[in-house]
Write a structure and sequence with these properties.
Shape: globular
CATH superfamily: Gcn5-related N-acetyltransferase (GNAT)
Radius of gyration: 16 Å
Strand content: 35-45%
GO molecular function: acyltransferase activity, transferring groups other than amino-acyl groups
Pfam families: Acetyltransf_1
Protein name: N-acetyltransferase domain-containing protein
Strand order of the largest sheet: 1-2-3-4-5-7-6
Distance between the termini: 25 Å
InterPro entries: Acyl_CoA_acyltransferase, GNAT_dom
Largest sheet: 7 strands, mixed
Organism: Vibrio aerogenes CECT 7868
CATH architecture: 3-Layer(aba) Sandwich
Order of helices and strands: EHEEEHEHEE
Length: 168
């Protein structure tokens, strides 16, 4: 399957906003978030995405699989340490899971942004943690650190590593 990253332009922002409730729904297994009385998962504020079109330290991408929308990845410089890239949000639609799309998209992200990286995973999300450890080890081998740390006020699993620029 052909996997591509496409930077999300502001004109396509609504598509990202439309995907977000599916992401929230997937995360509800670990966060306990429930739908509204109307049955919507809208526990996020779309204004929180504004920074992805107003700051050079935040970049949004759609993940395409054979030119079909398969998910998104939101990349940022970590607010606590701006020398570190951070996967702010990462989402693959269920239809595309377990096909290598998430791993391939990560490889492309890391190729575009060499340097220090971290990936934060909710402690309860053991499936995602296993995925990230596997994906990162395929790229950097055992040259990563996995540890618990605090993100704002939440104890999470952090995976930290560095990616060298690719030479031609």
């Amino acid at each position: 399957m052909n996997v591509n990253l496409v930077e999300i332009q502001s004109k396509s922002r609504l598509t990202l906003e439309n995907l977000f409730p599916y992401y929230i729904y997937d995360m509800s297994e670990f966060t306990g978030w429930g739908p509204t009385k109307d049955g919507h998962y809208d526990t996020y504020n779309p204004a929180n995405l504004d920074i992805y079109w107003s700051s050079e330290e935040h970049v949004p991408y759609f993940i395409l699989a054979d030119n079909e929308l398969a998910g998104f990845v939101l990349i940022r410089k970590y607010p606590v340490d701006r020398t570190v890239y951070d996967i702010d949000q990462y989402f693959i639609l269920r239809k595309f899971k377990k096909q290598g799309i998430g791993k391939e998209a990560l490889k492309q992200v890391l190729h575009l942004y060499p340097g220090k990286w971290q990936i934060r995973v909710l402690k309860e999300n053991t499936g995602a943690f296993k995925f990230w450890l596997s994906a990162v080890s395929e790229i950097v081998g055992q040259k990563y650190v996995s540890e618990e740390d605090i993100d704002v006020d939440l104890l999470m699993n952090f995976i930290r590593f560095e990616v060298a620029p690719q030479t031609a």
